[in-house]
Every structure is written in structure tokens, then in C-alpha cells.
Design brief:
The complex is a heterodimer. Chain A is 79% helix and 2% strand. Chain A contains 13 helices and 4 strands. In chain A, a hairpin with a 2-residue loop joins strand 1 and strand 2. In chain A, helix 1 runs antiparallel to helix 4 and helix 5 packs antiparallel against helix 6. Chain A starts with a helix and ends in a 10-residue tail after the last strand. By secondary structure, chain B is mainly alpha-helical. Chain B has a single domain, classed as 434 Repressor (Amino-terminal Domain) (Orthogonal Bundle), CATH 1.10.260.40. In chain B, helix 2 packs across helix 3. The chains are: A mainly alpha, B mainly alpha.
Chain lengths: 456, 68
């Protein structure tokens, strides 16, 4: 497809993206400069330098074009489009090549205190994110070439691209292995291959997520034009799966983490370090999940308002309460961290006991209050007689059971029982949430009485 | 300004926006935006649309500004 509208919009998207690239590359070089205490060379920041140079060239070109042409015409637009197309491809491929060079020349997985693949991961994550945002602003899909294909063809094209990414990852690993075997480069350890494949998987996951998200968006837009509307966007299900997997992993991991920390003398220093490291990663991941839950809340809000505009105020109240509860739940571990230094300074037993008692009470109050969220959802959906609304009550039973078990069998004394219960309850909660939102996202209402409107 | 002339010509031909887009080789959204008056197509694209809908440029794209 050679769509002139898409071509002209792509130039705008790529121009904007170039500015983002300059900022990312500059900041990354700055961070490495501070971490290394010297100017990073090609081995340390080769990918950043190439991104910075090519992006600056693109911006200068744009400046020259805008200064030399009085009014932009179709011919100059075509030239700009071609220039940005080539520049975009060059930046992507050369940044991967330079990143590969960095990997080959560094035997250590860290540069300063930063993982070697931190820039490339950030670069691709932000490129996906900003490309999508800019593209939607210009009314283009990220996968504009394939989005209008039949479902099976679209899936095939997504799988092909994933295969292509995997091929690049595996290919780079094989070249690295070959080069180090024949001593062209320093000996590579497992960390090199892990770093390459980790970057590869992150890119694949982000691409897959975006591909599924866009397809849902496109299909729902078409259905809306045909006079059909879905109660809640299918993208809610997508976000719920990601958040559900994170919560499932977190709760199961924390069950184990508790056992390791309580019986720390039975575990080696290395094991304890791995557990603490994963705990730290989860802690950081909570912020991403919180952002995702905010986006999900907005999607739910917009979908529900579209289906039931008359209950706009009620939906707003429910969603706001859900956001408040999830924010408190998110920041609850942060409270403990803030309080920690205070505990160490005032190390008297009475103070520590009072603080611990306070945190305990706070946790119980939080747990009880958070039970309100499924109750609110239940009352709302039940009001419209949706068949799946009763599932929210089942969702309510799980944390209740968890609370009863914790009260009856304290975790410290019944470690194995608690761990088994954590497994069972977390998995059932995950399955129930997915089934619930699956049903909600497949509830289609035909707007028979409304005229069929075609919209962008 | 909505291009009702193009929309009615398309409907009269029995084409959906998707079908017309496929015939011309552009995206469905481009057709939507032209019909909604949110995108100004080039002369080339206008001609392609006219050929597919068996209409002239005057029929679909001429706007008599004196009547506005």
C-alpha cells in the first residue's frame, strides 16, 4: 500500500521521534559519564553516539528544508519522507550493530553500575511507546501496513515479525559465540547471551502487546461503525492478563521470600541475595503495574460511559475509588521503607512494637477496605443485570479466605500451609479475574435504534 | 467540510469504505478522512477515486465557493 496520507504523516511521526531519540541518547551518555567518571567510548556508549549523530543530522536537514522552502509542496514532502525513512532504518540497524559491538568488546555484563543492555532496552521501549502515541495523534496505526488484513493474515504477519526478531537475537548470539571461539573478541560468558536474548524478548513482548492492543482497537472501531458496541474494550482483558501474571508471580514469590527471610540461617548468602534482588525488581515493577492499572481504569471508564452515558457520574465515582484503593495498596510497602530509619533510631522495644502494631492494623484496614472494590463493581453491573456480575462476589471471597487463614494460622507458625494456600488462592484469583473480564469484554450490545455512523 | 458527494457516489456504487480503499490501494481511514473533509487528497488520488466511482473530478470534488 502506497498511501500518500500515511507517507506524509509518517514524516511527521519520524521527525517527532528524532527529537525523542536525541533526548534519550543524550541522557544515556550523561548517565554513563557519571557512572564511569570519564567520557564513555564506543565500547561503552557506541549505540548512543550513533543514535545521537543520526538524529542530529535529521534535525539539521529538517531545519535546512524548512528555511529554504517558502511553502511546502508535494515534491518536498516526498523528499522529506524518503529522507526520514532512510534515516529511521539506518538509526535502528546501526544502533543494534553498535550495541552488538559493545556486547562483544565488554566481557562484563555491567558498565559502571548499569546493565550493558540498559540503553538498547530503553531505546526500543520508548521508540515503541512514542511511535504509537505520535501515530495515534496522526490517526495512523503502528502496524498500519497490516492492520486492515483479515484476522488470520494479521496474526501471521505478527508471528513473522516475532520470528524475525528472534532470528536477529539468535543470530547475534551465534556470531558472538563464533567470534569468541576463534578469539577475534574477548571470551564471552553466559551473561552476554542472556543480555542479547533478554533485549530480544523485551522487544518481542512490547511488539506483541502493541499488536494485540491495536488489533482490538481496530476491530472495535469497525464494530462501532456497524452499530455494535462492546461493553468494555477487549484491551482491558489484555491489561488484566499482564497485571494478573505480575500479581500471581508476586504473591507466590513473596510466599517463598517470607520463608527464606524467616529461616535465613538455612539459606546461603547467594540465595538470599537472589531473593532480595527479585524482591527489588518486583518493588520497581509495582510502579509500572500501577500506571497500567490507571490506563485500564481510563479504558473501562470510557467504554462504560459510551455504553451507558446516563450513569457517567456513578462510573466516575467507582473508578476513582478503585484508583484510590490501588494507589494505597501500591504505596503500602513504601510506608514501611520510610518508617524503617525511624525504627532504627528509636530502637526501644515499646516503640518498635507500637509501630509494628500500627502497620498491622493499617494492613488489616487496607485489606478490608479493598474488599469494597469488587463489591462496587458487583453493585454497578448487577444494576444493569449483566450475567457475569455475580463473579465479582466470588472475587470477593478469595481475599476474605486469605484474611481468615492468616488470622487462624499465622504465617510464622504455619509456613507450609500458608504457602500452599497462597498458591491456591493466587491461582484461583488469577483465573477468576481473567474469566470475569473475558465475559465482560465479550458482552456485545447491538445499537439497533441508533443510526449507523461511519467515523475515523 | 464533509464530502457528501463522494460518500453518496460510493454508496450508490455499493462499495463500503473498506472495499473502495482496497480498490484504490489506500487505507480505510484515508477514505473516511476524505469523506469527512479532514484530509485533502492529491490530484492523483482524486483521479483514482473518480475512476473507481465512474465520476468526474467535477462531480466529486468541485466546490462552488460563490454559493457558500
Amino acid at each position: 500500500m502506497n498511501d500518500e496520507r500515511i507517507e506524509s504523516k509518517l514524516s511527521i511521526i519520524k521527525k517527532n521521534l528524532t527529537i525523542v531519540w536525541v533526548i534519550i541518547a543524550f541522557l544515556s551518555i550523561l548517565v554513563k559519564l557519571i557512572a564511569l567518571q570519564s567520557i564513555p567510548g564506543l565500547r561503552e556508549a557506541g549505540a548512543e553516539y550513533i543514535v545521537l549523530v543520526l538524529s542530529v543530522i535529521a534535525l539539521i536537514y529538517q531545519l535546512i528544508v524548512s528555511l529554504s522552502t517558502q511553502t511546502p509542496d508535494e515534491r518536498t514532502e516526498k523528499l522529506t519522507y524518503r529522507f526520514f525513512q532512510i534515516n529511521f532504518k539506518l538509526t535502528i540497524y546501526l544502533s543494534i550493530t553498535l550495541y552488538f559491538y559493545q556486547i562483544l568488546m565488554n566481557t562484563q555484563p555491567m558498565i559502571g553500575r548499569l546493565p550493558i543492555n540498559s540503553f538498547i532496552n530503553l531505546f526500543f521501549s520508548l521508540t515503541f511507546l512514542f511511535y504509537y502515541v505520535f501515530a495515534r495523534k496522526q490517526q495512523i496505526y503502528f502496524n498500519y501496513k497490516t492492520i486492515e488484513l483479515e484476522s488470520s493474515e494479521y496474526k501471521q504477519s505478527v508471528l513473522k515479525k516475532i520470528g524475525y526478531f528472534l532470528l536477529i537475537g539468535v543470530g547475534l548470539c551465534m556470531i558472538a559465540f563464533g567470534a569468541s571461539t576463534f578469539a577475534y573478541v574477548p571470551q564471552q560468558g553466559w551473561t552476554t547471551y542472556i543480555a542479547i536474548m533478554l533485549s530480544c524478548f523485551i522487544i518481542i513482548l512490547e511488539f506483541l502487546f502493541l499488536a494485540v492492543y491495536e488489533r482490538h482497537h481496530y476491530t472495535e472501531a469497525i464494530n462501532h461503525e456497524k452499530g455494535q458496541t462492546i461493553l468494555v474494550s477487549k484491551n482491558v482483558l489484555l491489561f488484566m492478563i499482564v497485571m494478573g501474571v505480575f500479581n500471581l508471580f508476586t504473591s507466590i514469590f513473596q510466599g517463598h521470600y517470607f520463608i527464606v527471610m524467616v529461616n535465613y540461617e538455612n539459606y546461603s548468602h547467594a540465595t538470599r541475595f537472589i531473593y532480595e534482588f527479585i524482591e527489588l525488581l518486583i518493588f520497581m515493577g509495582r510502579i509500572d503495574i500501577f500506571v497500567m492499572s490507571l490506563i485500564t481504569s481510563v479504558i473501562i471508564f470510557r467504554s462504560l460511559v459510551r455504553s451507558h452515558p446516563e450513569s457517567r457520574f456513578k462510573i466516575k465515582q467507582i473508578i476513582t475509588l478503585a484508583i484510590i484503593f490501588s494507589s494505597i495498596a501500591l504505596f503500602q510497602p513504601f510506608f514501611t521503607i520510610i518508617i524503617q530509619p525511624f525504627i532504627f533510631i528509636n530502637a526501644s522495644a515499646t516503640v518498635i512494637r507500637t509501630i509494628a502494631y500500627g502497620i498491622n492494623i493499617f494492613n488489616y484496614v487496607l485489606a478490608i477496605v479493598s474488599l469494597l472494590v469488587p463489591l462496587l463493581y458487583y453493585s454497578y453491573f448487577n444494576g444493569y443485570k449483566y450475567s457475569f456480575s455475580s463473579l465479582f462476589l466470588f472475587l470477593l471471597v478469595i481475599p476474605l479466605l486469605q484474611m481468615i487463614i492468616t488470622l487462624m494460622f499465622p504465617a510464622y507458625y504455619h509456613q507450609n500451609l500458608n504457602l500452599i494456600m497462597t498458591y491456591l488462592l493466587s491461582i484461583s484469583s488469577f483465573i477468576l479475574t481473567i474469566v470475569l473480564w473475558y465475559k465482560a469484554t465479550h458482552y456485545t450490545i447491538t445499537k439497533e435504534l441508533l443510526p449507523v455512523e461511519e467515523s475515523a | 467540510m464533509t464530502n457528501l458527494k463522494m460518500k453518496s457516489a460510493r454508496v450508490a456504487k455499493g462499495y463500503s469504505q473498506e472495499a473502495l480503499a482496497k480498490l484504490i490501494g489506500v487505507s480505510r481511514q484515508t477514505i473516511i478522512l476524505i469523506e469527512q473533509g479532514q484530509y485533502n487528497p492529491s490530484l492523483n488520488l482524486c483521479l483514482l477515486i473518480c475512476h473507481q466511482l465512474d465520476k468526474t473530478l467535477n462531480d466529486l470534488f468541485w466546490e462552488d465557493l460563490t454559493n457558500e
